[in-house]
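Per reviewer request, we include the raw input and output of the structure prediction for the construct analysed in the revised manuscript.
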Amino acid sequence: MEVEFYSLASGSKGNCTYIATENTKILIDVGLSCRETEKKLKEIEVNIEEIDGIFITHEHIDHIKGVGVLSRKYKIPIYSLEETREEILKKKNQGKIEERLLRCIYVDEKNVINDICIEAFEVPHDAVKTVGYEIKVNDIKICIATDLGHITKDVKNRLTGCDILLIESNYDEYMLQTGKYPRALKERIKSNLGHLSNREAGRLIVDIVDAKLKYLFLGHISDENNRPSKAEATIFEILDSEGIKYNIKKSFRIDVASSMKEKIVIKKAYE
């Protein structure tokens, strides 16, 4: 069994993740334009017409920008919570989406597309309702959780035992504090329904890292209030202080999701 993983984009300007097996190809969010998504999939030699479904985390534009056009052009089903679907349909920039392409899913319910099982779990964020996704292919587990205001017990449980994990490391606390954003926006970002700071992400990683983890990607890094190098340095500092090994043989690799140059492939034999 072989599973491919690739982050097409991760940040305030757009989020989109590709996951595939030999039989199934899905996207998590389409926060890029249709043209950008087509271009990035072509760069990693993926035929967009083979995408089996798009799973949406929530209705903010950096997660749904191109979903309407992409679904309409290639007849790709869109999977989301009912509340998210209603918000998407209200947005004029999405155009008309065929009813048959809109598929409702529910929190904590398993959805099976061929050999991929995907389950939504609720995360705290200031959308109408936001989810992360747990993706399983046999015993391979991938989790995606961005736009996290804070860490709940359920989120922590979900993110434990992954082979691949993409989590938010949105802002550096000092850069946000001294930056040019208005006070109200700064408070919204720091709130329990906002985003995770680098230090909060680091403490989460300490709590959930285990021997199964192979790849950890830092996502949704703010262009204004963070830098990839600063996010990595903060995470490394926290892991070092706890004696946790990373980026060496027989440990897990840490990278920035937006800097991926090639697909990650996880291989496991059938049990």
